[in-house]
Structures
1.
Amino acid sequence: MTVTLITGANKGIGYETARQLTMLGHTVYIGARDLERGERAAAELGARAVQLDVTDDDSVSTALAAIEEAEDHLDVVVHNAGVLDPSRDGPAALRSFDTNAVGIVRVMEAALPLLQRSSNPNVVTISSSAGSFGAVNNPERPEYGLTVALYASSKAAASMLTVQYAKLHPGIKFNAIEPGTTTTDMTEAVGVTGRSVEDTARFVVSWATLGADGPTGTFNDDAGVLPW
């Protein structure tokens, strides 16, 4: 049985990814800051829930300990938890980087011992083309006009973490993806809409189900390789 952890999965892209992976037979753990909401989502999907706040070391370690006790290993991690704060001040910067980048480090360091017990360990980071230096400097791309400084910068950090972890742990696949502009609570709050979560989750699932010979250390959207 493939055991999968998805952070920030009680709604939006994370929830739909959990639904699709559950349908494929994965044992899915929904990581949610609010355990009640996580348990409600898990009950709807036939998944399991753990209280997991990626900005809290104790929460992360407790969540991974619970998974270890129940499963003894972990095959897939999807770093989905994220914030998009249009503010540009110190507190907003700390929130953005703590969730979108430092949170990845917290989860990875707690999850690595379990992933190393898997025969096909796979980590997918939901990054963003807004964090691609190539995309935001290309006048022909929509990212050129985006002014989400903290989100873009923290997602650039998330992509670099993907590369570094891939180098540090060559036995585990680490890939960053741009999921595509999607209509969610987070994007609607800043006036951005796009395709359905169902379509986006299918792309996430394609990376969460890579075979043992799949790529690692890459950054892709559904059209192919993205510039770093």
Note: The mean pLDDT is 94.
2.
Amino acid sequence: MRIATYNVEWFTGLFDEQDQLIKDGSWSSRRDVTKAEQIDALSVVFQTLDSDAIMVIEAPDQNGRRSTVAALEGFANAFDLRTNKAIIGFSNDTQQEIALLYDPDVVRVKHNPHGSFDAPRFDQEFHIDLDVDENQDIVQFSKPPLELELTTLTNQTLRLIGVHLKSKAPHGARNAADVMRISIANRRKQLAQAIWLRRRVVRYLEANEHLIVLGDLNDGPGLDEYEDLFGRSSVEIVMGEKGKNCLHDPHARAALSRRLGAKPTTSRFYIHKDKRFLQALLDYIMVSESLRSKRPEWRIWHPFDDQACWHDPKLRQALLTASDHFPVTLDLDI
């Protein structure tokens, strides 16, 4: 079985108010890329991935007029993808949903959110003292994680949690002091969300569930100037550190094990002021210890770093055109 995660930059901008693809020469939200070019590139990437299930980060919008499921299923049917069914959980107001595209002939999927006293359901509120002032702060997810129960043809059950954690930019800052104050406050909220997610992870692991946490954590070792202030990244919190109830992702572990030298990357952003590209490790597929016996194989579909992608000019260009993130896949014997 192949499971993927893929952050598609502003996927919602490729659909009209009737959830139909806008395949024309107008500009997409990608720099110097038209909607038709991005759509064609995405079709190449999705077809080549040939996954049984794909966690789509920044999926098309869900609101009173638009449907994430209709948009994704329309996209799948337009390009004859076998992952032609879609499911979402709790929608949000950011126009960037979390959804799963899957092959209904291979897996059965249902939204199965959980909640407990110390880890409420992800569409609710989490109470935690963020600034150590002995007062409880209220934390909410701007993009509630997607909790799914996935059943295979062999009746194996997997728990999937699709995530998109993000620390907001310091909007409203008037000076450098404001930037620091707001950035630190937003960073605290992101780490609180990671703690909330971690508590749910531990509950699944303690129940001996097969668990996969996948998506964009927008955070990792060495990525944030405030990392030293807080000591840990969201990635480290969610995965767990040495001991029981840890999740595993070889790319995250490789990045955590070294301060210098080459590290895996899953995204590529153009920095206008520096006139250069920045690469970062933002996308992960973390698995429970119980799945490490299923011969897991991870792959980052990086157009320059993955040899097969590099030697396929059509796929290489499609990966660069489709999004500022690259897909990550996990193959499992299950």
Note: The chain has eight helices and 16 strands.
3.
Amino acid sequence: MAQMDAALEAPKKKSLLPLLIGIVLMLVLGGGAFYAVYSGLVLGGHESAAGERPKAQNGQPPVSFVALDPMVISLGESGARHLRFSAQLEVEPRRAAEVELLKPRVMDVLNGYLRAVDITQLEDPSALIRLRAQMLRRIQIVTGEGIVRDLLIIEFVMN
């Protein structure tokens, strides 16, 4: 009879304390691991001098801009319409002098390309993104891969 009474009694409730302690420890250790990786204490803290890229004050890599001479390009067969174009090239500071030497070739490539583009494409406002990408690719071919990062169009006016 004693065995039946013991079997009929409800089982004791297990404590939730170990589960709560486990969850709290998991959150604390996970947060600590995130901070250690994010701050660079673990996995990529200090890079070697060969792989280290200098940073500007705002956290971005330093840049230099090489201004291209303003260009006026006659459009169409009659030459009655003109495009006024000026831009700057974004380069690493150590490569600015190198790009400055290649500026006449860059100007020649841009002049030839812009003369060949159809006037209807130049008039389309959404075409500027495609034109910019095409010009940047041509500039990168002239200067070499990885030297010019970006082309910033300062003035693009048709009259």
Note: The domain at 64-158 is CATH 3.30.479 (Tetrahydropterin Synthase; Chain A).
4.
Amino acid sequence: MNTCQMCEQPNEIGGILCTGCTKATVVRLESLPALHRGLAPFLQPVGGIGAGRSGKGGPAPLPVNEEILDLRGPGGLVGAAERWLDDVRRDRGHAAITPSGGVEARLRAAVDGLLSEMAWIALSWPSAGYFAKDIRDLVNSVRSIIAPVPAVEAGQRVGNCPAVVQPAGTLCGAVLRLAPGEKALRCQWCGTAYPPYVWAQLKVWIDEDAKARDAA
């Protein structure tokens, strides 16, 4: 029996990543654009205000948090996603893609490219474990800065489950509640789990579904 390169537990389905780690990596990839946008309000350090005067006599420029600037810049989240996509395409014998557009568009394109290759990555790519761990660490690093967890009290109604139930492909829609003592949201109808690191994206999905229902 194979061992998952991510969690190092027995992998009953074979391949490089187990089902759980594959799903977790997909969720983390999908959250990258939202996390990128979530960093924007943190560009200015807490309490950062113009101090003193500039050389032209006006207020000194506001300070910028260089760590946030790096994560949101070409070498940050988008750079990491594009490098992994380049590695995947190279190992699959595909031509490299020249990035185009702004940083957000490039990040979305790189994420979409990686998501389209996840089946092959999980089953066959020797570097899948390193890739999954790097994406996990990247997401955790951003979360440690912006803490994207919606205010959810134990037992409080969170919203309707946005999971797509297979094979019918229909929206679950069951009510999600965080029971006392639980560390993750779990849909009691379809069984989909939503650990804390995906709660920011979960809120986006719930809001989008609610808007779609209102417009119908």
Note: The chain has two domains: 1-45+61-148, 149-216.
